[in-house]
Design brief:
Blueprint lengths: L9 H8 L2 H9 L14 H7 L3 H9 L14 H7 L3 H10 L13 H7 L3 H9 L15 H7 L3 H9 L14 H7 L3 H9 L2
């Protein structure tokens, strides 16, 4: 199979563009759906980033691992959550992707949505039973800490309503309150103090 310098094949190019007709032709011709680019991104990752629900459904039906991770640990669900590809988030969750999978740098998809201020993706993950207190495996940060640190009060409110713990400490000893104080988000600090 011909590859570009980054390892992209025709099937990966079709997935990255959400090009269903090209994808179908290539699959019918025997294209390898397990192929990955140099960075480890496969067709599922690229279809998720393209927000292509049809391609995600077709790949799941062919048995591709919905929780497959790239070389840097990125998962299709985590990437879709971070980039606000909410149709892909919803589809991956319906198809059975793990909302609590620790992916890139040990972060679950909920943390990716929180740090990117993607409220709709965060809502979908919480509805799929993503744990609002699941911490980043490398730093111990929670979604609440990251949302507080980027000043996303709407996400902070939603996480608190889902049972996020205010006083959880990251590995560096910081809490969500200190993360909000660091950026001068007094409204978030007050909200977190009230929620203790």
């Amino acid at each position: 199979e011909a590859k570009a310098s980054d390892g992209t094949t025709a099937i990966l190019a079709a997935a990255s563009r959400g090009n269903v007709p090209a994808f179908d032709i290539l699959v019918e011709a025997g294209a390898n759906l397990s192929v990955r680019r140099e960075d480890g991104y496969g067709a599922l990752h690229l279809a998720a980033l393209a927000n292509s629900t049809v391609l995600l459904e077709r790949m799941a039906a062919r048995g591709l691992d919905l929780d497959a991770t790239a070389a840097d640990g990125a998962s299709p669900l985590g990437e879709a959550a971070y980039w606000g590809a909410t149709s892909a988030v919803a589809t991956l969750l319906i198809l059975g992707a793990d909302p609590n999978l620790l992916a890139r740098e040990g972060r679950p998809a909920l943390l990716e949505a929180a740090r990117a201020r993607e409220l709709e993706a965060l809502e979908l993950l919480l509805q799929a039973n993503a744990d609002p207190n699941l911490a980043d495996g490398s730093t111990g940060n929670t979604a609440l800490m990251l949302a507080a640190n980027v000043g996303a009060i709407d996400i902070v409110q939603r996480l608190l309503a889902s049972g996020a713990k205010v006083d959880t400490e990251a590995k560096d000893g910081w809490t969500a309150i200190e993360a909000a104080e660091m950026i001068g988000a007094d409204d978030i600090v007050a909200l977190l103090e009230e929620s203790r």
